[in-house]
Every structure is written in C-alpha cells, then in structure tokens.
Amino acid sequence: MTQADLGALLHFTQPAISQLEHDGPASYDLRVLRRVAIALQVPLAILAAESDEEADVRRRQFFKTGAVGVATAVGGNKRQEIASSASSGPKVGATDVERITKSIDKIHELQLMAGGDRLCEIASNEVRYIEQLLDAGSYSDKVGKALTSAGAEMMTAAGWVHYDAGRWKDAKRYYADAAQAATVSGDGIAAAHTWINACLLSYREGSRPKEGVQLAQAAQLAARREGGPKLRALAAIREAEALSVIGDRSAMVGAVNRAHRAYESTRGHDPAYLAHLPEAQLSGLTGLAFMRMGDHSEATTYLRSAIGGTAAYPREQTAWQVRLAENYVQAGAIADGCGVLIENFQGVSKVASTRLQTTLTEIADELRRHVAVAEVREFFGLWTAR
After folding, report:
1. Gap between the Cα atoms of 16 and 22, Å rounded
2. pLDDT band (50, 70, 90) for residue 98
3. Taking residues 2-29, what's their average pLDDT?
4. Taking a C-beta distance cutoff of 8 angstroms, is the pair 90, 133 a contact?
5. Which of 295, 71, 104, 315 is nearest to 190 (CA)?
6. CA pair distance 194, 157, nearest whole angstrom
7. Distance (Å, rounded) from C-alpha 266 to C-alpha 72?
8. DSSP 3-state helix, strand, coil percentages of the chain (rounded to 5)?
9. SUPFAM superfamilies of this UniProt entry (predicted)?
C-alpha cells in the first residue's frame, strides 16, 4: 500500500502519512493511531507499542493468533496486572495532584530565575514520581484524569529544562510522552503547551521549520478551544519564529500581530504557570523573529523592551541581553554588541543554561574577526579571565 493509498483511507494527505511514518507528532496521537488501526484492521496495541522490540513481539502475536488472540494476550493480562497493582498501591487524591501542580509552577519559575541546567534532575525525579503514582497508585477516574493531565504538564516542564540544558534528545522524549498523556486525558491546554515547546525544538535544533509551523498551528487550534490569552499568544509567537526561519516575512508579521492581539484578550483560562509569561517575554520572542528576518532595527526595539521588563527574572533578563548582543553583531554594530556583553558580563558568563552559553560562544567566535575594535579586545579580556 502506498502512502497515498493509506491517506485515501484515512482522509489524510500523502505528506501527512509520510510524517506519520517518520516519527512526526501525529505518531504519538492515540486518536490518529486509532484511525490507522481501524483502516488497516489491526489492533491498536500494534501501533502504540512502547518500543520497537515490543512492537515486533506484538506483530508476531497478531499474525499467529489474529486480532482476538492478541487482544487477550496483550490487552487482557496487562489490564489485570495494572488493576492488581493499583488496588495494592498508594491512595492518590486531589491533594496529591494539587501538590504536583504547585511543583510544576515552581519549576517554571525557577527556570526563569536560574536556567535549565540546574533543574534537569529535579524535573526528571518529579516525572518518575508521577509515573509511579499512575502505574501503582489507587485513584478514582476523576483523580486519574487530573493526575494524567498534571503528568503531561510536568513532562513538558522536564522537556523544557532539558532543552535549555542542551539535552535535546531527552527533551524530545519528554515532549512525546507529554503529548501522549495530554491526549489520553483529553487536556487541550496541556496538549497545546507540549506542541508549543516541540515546535521550538523542531525549528531551532532539528532544522524542520515547516514542522514547527504545523505544531504551532495545532497548538493554536487546541488553545483556541480551551486556553486563555497567554497560551494563544505563546503559540502564535512560536509560529512567527518558525516562519522567520523559513523566511516568510508576510506570514511572520501576521503571526506576530495575532500573538499580540491574543495577549491583550481576556477570553479563556490560562494555567497558573503562564502567570510567569510577562509581556516582556512576548516582546523578546518577537525581537528574535525580526532578528532572523534581518530586520535588526525592529529587533533591537523589542529586545530592549524585553530586557527592561524582566528584571525580576535574572536568567530571563540575561537571555535577552545575550540575544540583543547577537542582534547587534549580526547587524555589524560590533562595538554595541560588545558593549552589552561587557556591561552585563557577570550574569551573562555564569547563566546556567547550556543553550545560552552555546549562543555566547558562537558570538565570541564571530567577534574574533573584529579584534581591531577596542570593545572586542575588552570583551576578550573578560572572556579569557572568567
């Protein structure tokens, strides 16, 4: 069967089937996999296996015993095993979910204060704790759904701090798990947040900006149904960033305008962690989009606004200082770029973010070509002595 043949059965385009086959976001969406299973007349368990080895085992079982046999072999015993462990495990209630939600908010806040490098282990331990509760705990359907939603958000938080720490493979894994948990719980807000972050990973480190646009658009659709103004704004500005990588200025400006309109809206509900999304951060992300388009004057205005509005979050303010310096250097304003780095060198050189330190090293590599500039020599004096 060709990709076009399968697409016709599912009412999907051929490129959508290609993405599904090549580990695209939809391959972690149980609703999509269920449609594929029905179209191919195979059990969902074959498509939703946790590993390639497990998938091979399930396929062999299916071809030997047929759908009824594999449902018993794979589904029945597993359900009994989970039910047995849940009945003997710890009791999980609403207060446990509330504590987890507060931990999510705290991780987001700490990341803005200190950077992701110091938070990877904390976030990973929180994810393992939630997984243990889901696997072995005893809880009502209502609590189970809330716990799964909280798990999705914690996995997204873990993905973000791992991304900030330069551990992109780990980030991708957490985002995939988060997307699946959000789908299972039917939580559109959690799904939107996961896709927003996965979008960032696609167009920055994966060099797949078109996929980034698609993920951001999917996030906006989910956020439009359930999310509040800040969630919608964040999804739209991530789309603008991905479009700036593609080089589509008209579409990028449209997404920027949509993001700022959404931020000013009062419709919908934002989760607590987005209370830490100040307007200054939206300005900074807008500045990045214009910087990538080569509009350095416009980028400077937005990045300076971001720096001025994030004094309460040291790591976040440092990030925009680094990006402003990068923008100046790209524009050829070498002395101005070095001036920003020199003025803020103590914070810039020590920020606990591998991602930002990598950017800083790239800026330094570019500055080596301009050692005739006095500010460059002053910067490297600090750089070598740090």
Report:
1. 10
2. very high
3. 82
4. yes
5. 104
6. 9
7. 50
8. 85, 0, 15
9. lambda repressor-like DNA-binding domains, TPR-like
User: 3-10 vs 14-21: helix axis angle to the nearest 10?
Assistant: 110
Q: Amino acid letter at 335?
A: A
For 124, counting Cβ atoms within 10 Å of its Cβ (0-12 exposed, 13-18 middle, 19+ buried), the class is: middle
Do you know the residue count of the chain?
Answer: 386
The SS3 assignment for 85 reads helix
- Tell me 227's DSSP state: B
Task: Say which DSSP state 352 is in.
Answer: S
In the block, tokens 């938070």 appear at 119
Domain boundaries, the chain: 3-88, 299-386
* Tokens read off for 99: 């504590």
Q: What is the distance, to the nearest Å, from the Cα of residue 1 to the centroid of all Cα atoms in its chain?
A: 34
The token pair at 382 is 């600090």
| Spatial distance between the Cα atoms of 104 and 92, rounded to a whole number of angstroms | 18
| pLDDT single digits (tens) 271-289 | 877 766 778 889 999 999 9
DSSP 3-state of 143? helix
φ and ψ at residue 165, rounded to 5 degrees = -85, 5
Counting beta carbons within 10 angstroms of the beta carbon of residue 118, is it exposed (0 to 12), middle (13 to 18) or buried (19 or more)?
middle
Mapped onto helix, strand or coil, the DSSP state of residue 49 is coil
User: Computed over its alpha carbons, how large is the radius of gyration of the chain?
Assistant: 23
The single residue listed with the structure tokens 């080569």 is 294
Q: 252-265 burial, b if ≥16 CB within 10 A, otherwise e?
A: bbebbebbbebbee
Could you tell me the pTM of the whole model? Answer: 0.71
Give tens-digit pLDDT for 158-167: 999 999 999 9
- Helix, coil or strand: residue 91: strand
Phi first, then psi: give them for residue 73, nearest 5 degrees: -65, -40
Cα–Cα nearest to 241, from 220, 263, 256, 229: 256
Question: Residue 69 is encoded by which pair of tokens?
Answer: 């046999």
